[in-house]
Design brief:
It is found in: Membrane. With 574 residues, the chain is an all-alpha fold. It contains 19 helices and 4 strands.
């Protein structure tokens, strides 16, 4: 009986307040802490956007004009960054710089799993600020490219770490719409304005460093995610982080604080026990399970395609009609509108989930690229003639002008649609990869994200020989994304972040089943003992009652007999 009571006490969840149970998921609530975290994340994303699109504006002067005769293949010597070099070398330099993004993603992802997200964000932000400050002092284009290479290492590392860090701190049901609204899209518009006002690339670099100082000041007030600390078995740090986060939104009584600490430390100790019994997980474990491996391949392909298309167009605004500043503003406005529309649909209509949004977005991009590709196959000689006529000061055919304008806005719209894929490819991997390999999995797919960014400046190079080629390449990558995702990725809306590897889930269920069966057996034994005791007591009680009844009947008969004898004596006396 005592053992059974102890088991029930242990299995009973601790309560954070009367009538309410505290769970680990209760730490992440939409409150003051999440608002502060979101603002910090916004400034981190803004500094990263300025650095990612730096080369889009580096050789631009704030002269707003609209023209349609520009063609990327007509290479011209240009004063890029005050260095007199051909434009094709600038594109190659941008590609070399973007290799730093991939290296940063690999390094930061692995360090974050060892030291924690917060330390990596702080150190990489400091590194980014330093190199953004020194880059304008470059004496040559080679030195400039080297400094920019390190700029991009720190940018790639921050991007790789801040996304899972942000996702892990958001409540499950608010994760999608918050990540959709607070994204890179509005920062495109802000960046276009900043670049226009800066007037030259040196001031733009220093302003970007100043923006990066803001998250550097704000990050120290954040905490490492309790979820990550629990998985690492760091019970004291996890409980401290959980209490600190909750104090942002409510005053904790000593009793509540003790209960939160007890729940978190107990969860961390359980994880530590499982880790001792289990094993450490590394990169190759990402492919130890067929489902996890397929998810990695799908999202790697998706991010490569998305970056290839999005940055391929962003880095090659020369290939489109219109000024760079206006095009970037259009691109940013379209991206954010798509973000908000998708977030509204996903939040208000239950049937609209991650899967539907992904397939619609990538399907739209593939269709647009197919249309432009077909148009260019039949009209590119006329387009070249039209541009030559305009350049000479003449007037071209109206139909060709319409095709050029359509190509401009259709390309910008396709690039804008990539924003939804970036959001989904950030949210869904975090919902599919278990916590032990989440950062590793995200780091892996971010490598392909950066590979797409690396080769994107070169996407319009083949247009020198065959103008439809860039659109054919973008059609192939988007079609591959659509097909792989359609067949391999499930819906994840409303799913809680998985904390265990697939095999661990089964073992955990078995352990819980055995524990339940053991508890049931103990309860059954106690119930049997209780029933037996009650039956025995009832039998004794019934026997006693029967004895008492029989005794009473005998006494009654004896009494009646005595009364009869007395009456007989009296009658005889008479």
């Amino acid at each position: 009986m005592k053992y059974g009571k102890k088991q029930k006490e242990k299995s009973k969840p601790l309560e954070i307040s009367s009538g309410a149970e505290f769970k680990i998921s209760d730490i992440n609530m939409c409150g003051n802490y999440v608002v502060y975290l979101t603002v910090t994340y916004f400034f981190m994303v803004l500094s990263q956007t300025c650095n990612l699109l730096f080369m889009t504006f580096a050789d631009r002067k704030p002269k707003v004009e609209d023209f349609c005769e520009k063609k990327y293949s007509d290479y011209m010597s240009t004063k890029i960054c005050n260095f007199d070099i051909p434009m094709e070398y600038v594109k190659l330099g941008t590609t070399i710089q973007n290799i730093g993004l991939m290296i940063g993603a690999i390094v930061a992802g692995n360090i974050a799993d060892i030291l924690g997200r917060k330390k990596v964000l702080l150190s990489f932000t400091i590194g980014l600020i330093i190199f953004l400050i020194v880059t304008p002092f470059s004496p040559s284009f080679i030195v400039f490219t080297i400094f920019r290479f390190f700029d991009m290492i720190f940018t790639g590392g921050k991007h790789c770490v801040c996304n899972p860090y942000f996702m892990e701190n958001l409540p499950d049901k608010h994760r999608m719409w918050v990540a959709t609204v607070v994204t890179y899209s509005p920062n495109y518009i802000i960046l276009a304005g900043i670049a226009y006002l800066c007037k030259n690339w040196k001031i733009l670099s220093w302003v970007t460093a100043g923006i990066a100082v803001l998250p550097l000041i704000m990050i120290p007030f954040l905490m490492d995610t309790p979820r990550w600390l629990i998985k690492k078995g760091k019970d004291k740090k996890a409980s401290k982080a959980a209490v600190c986060i909750r104090k942002w939104d409510e005053e904790l009584t000593p009793e509540k604080e003790k209960k939160i600490i007890a729940v978190v430390e107990n969860a961390a100790k359980e994880e530590l026990t499982k880790k001792k019994k289990g094993k450490n997980y590394y990169f190759y474990h990402l492919f130890s399970n067929w489902k996890l491996g397929s998810y990695a391949v799908v999202f790697a392909t998706s991010l490569f395609s998305t970056s290839f298309i999005s940055y391929g167009i962003a880095y090659n605004m020369d290939a489109l009609a219109g000024t760079v500043y206006i095009n970037v503003i259009i691109l940013g406005a379209a991206r954010w509108s798509i973000n908000i529309l998708a977030a509204g649909l996903e939040f208000s209509i239950r049937s609209v989930g991650r899967r539907l949004l992904h397939l619609v977005a990538v399907g739209f991009i593939a269709v647009i690229m197919a249309i432009i590709f077909v148009i260019y196959i039949f009209t590119w000689p006329k387009i070249n003639t039209y541009k030559a006529v305009i350049k000479a000061g003449g007037t071209g055919e109206g139909s060709i002008l319409a095709i050029i304008i359509f190509t401009r806005y259709a390309s910008l719209l396709a690039a804008a649609m990539c924003t939804e894929l970036f959001v989904l490819d950030t949210v869904q991997p975090a919902e599919l990869f278990p916590t032990p390999i989440r950062s590793t999995g995200i780091a892996f797919i971010q490598i392909f994200n950066r590979l797409g960014t690396i080769v994107s400046p070169l996407v319009f190079i083949p247009s020198k020989h065959w103008p439809p080629a860039p659109f054919l390449l973008m059609l192939i990558t988007s079609a591959a994304d659509f097909l792989l995702y359609f067949f391999l990725v499930p819906e994840t809306r409303g799913m809680k972040l998985p904390d265990n590897m697939p095999g661990e889930e089964d073992n955990l269920c078995e352990d819980r089943t055995q524990s339940t069966e053991y508890t049931t057996d103990i309860t059954n034994v106690e119930s049997y003992d209780s029933v037996s005791t009650s039956t025995s007591r009832q039998s004794r009680k019934n026997a006693k009652t029967e004895t008492e009844t029989r005794t009473g009947e005998d006494e009654d008969k004896s009494r009646k007999s005595e009364e009869g004898k007395e009456r007989w004596r009296m009658e005889n006396r008479v």
